[in-house]
Amino acid sequence: MTRATKRRRTPLSCLGTRRVAQALSSEYGRRVDISPINNDAFKAELADATMKFLVPTPAGHAGFMLMSGEASPSLVSRAVHNIRIARDSVSARTGALILPPVATGTVEGRTFAVWPMKRSFLASTRVMQRLNGLSYAKTISRWVASLCHETLVPATAETVLGDLNVIVEDSAFSNEIRRAAEHAAGRVCAGQWQPMHCLHHGDLWSGNLLLPTHWDVPSFYVIDWAGMQRQGYPFLDLARMLMSLRCDSQFNAGCITNLRAHIGCDKDAVVGYILSACGRIGANLEHFPPDRFRTATRDLYEFVKTA
Q: How many CB atoms are closer than 10 A to CB 25?
């Protein structure tokens, strides 16, 4: 095996930690020591999984770096770009919870960004994770509603029908889900539902939340904006978050009713919005496994149908 071939096949997190440190040292103008963080099992199976490092910030405080994987070298820069868009699209109060990076750059064609160190929302034990969910659920759900409400714009029927058609034409889904997508499309065509777009995060679950290290800053932060859609759909972010927080059915129903009131839509529209959002994701899977997409769609459909 040649050296060049070996370089291509060896993960950067193993081979290139020194080169990453050198690139960051050049960016900062001083020597920087870093250490890799292992990916969790879910992310490690994805072709475009990011790599994580413990690094200092430019100011010398504790921080962490995300670096794009080999399959999608611009993923982190896209997330950073989306963060700027999201913060510019909402009020200062809503945007304050969207955590911007403090440094960005490129190493061997892979983009990276550095954020100040925060506490993970995912606690070390299930009991603590449950307590975090109960403590933050109301604040988080209100923020999600604000993100949606502040970015609402009318959707075109052509766009919504195209997204719903992704679900209708996928024979891997049950007849029930495909008929629900057909029903939503029929309502659009008949003028019974006038859909709205909003900015949606796209992967809003508790693993993409961070907690502050001090109490005099926002109560939580939202990260990982690579899958953001400017012309997204209401209810996707809310449903994903409520599912991950494992809130009770009464609370879930109240959150959905509250968002319905903000948007001005009926109950049938909630399922239509979810399937439209899933169709948009399904048409742009990139490196996301199709079976996981379908499982997530089924779970979201069952959740909103019940709630």
A: 14
Q: Is the dihedral of CA 183, 186, 190, 195 positive or negative?
A: positive
Q: Which residue has the tokens 């679950």?
A: 205
Question: The pTM is what?
Answer: 0.87
Identify the band that residue 31 occupies on the pLDDT scale cut at 50, 70 and 90: very high
Q: What would the two tokens of residue 146 be? A: 């604000």
Q: Decide: residue 269, CB within 10 A, 0-12 exposed, 13-18 middle, 19+ buried.
A: buried
Cβ contact 95:205 at 8 Å: no
144 touches 237 (CB < 8 A): yes
For residue 176 the two structure tokens come to: 């029930």
pLDDT one-digit tens code per residue, 217-229: 778 999 999 999 9
In eight-state DSSP terms, residue 98 is: B
Own/partner contacts of 22-31, CB < 8 Å, gap of 24 or more, are 23/105, 23/106, 23/107, 24/55, 24/65, 24/103, 24/105, 24/114, 27/103, 27/105, 28/56, 28/58, 28/103
User: What are the Cα distances from residue 294, in Å, to 41, 229, 242, 302?
Assistant: 19, 19, 19, 12
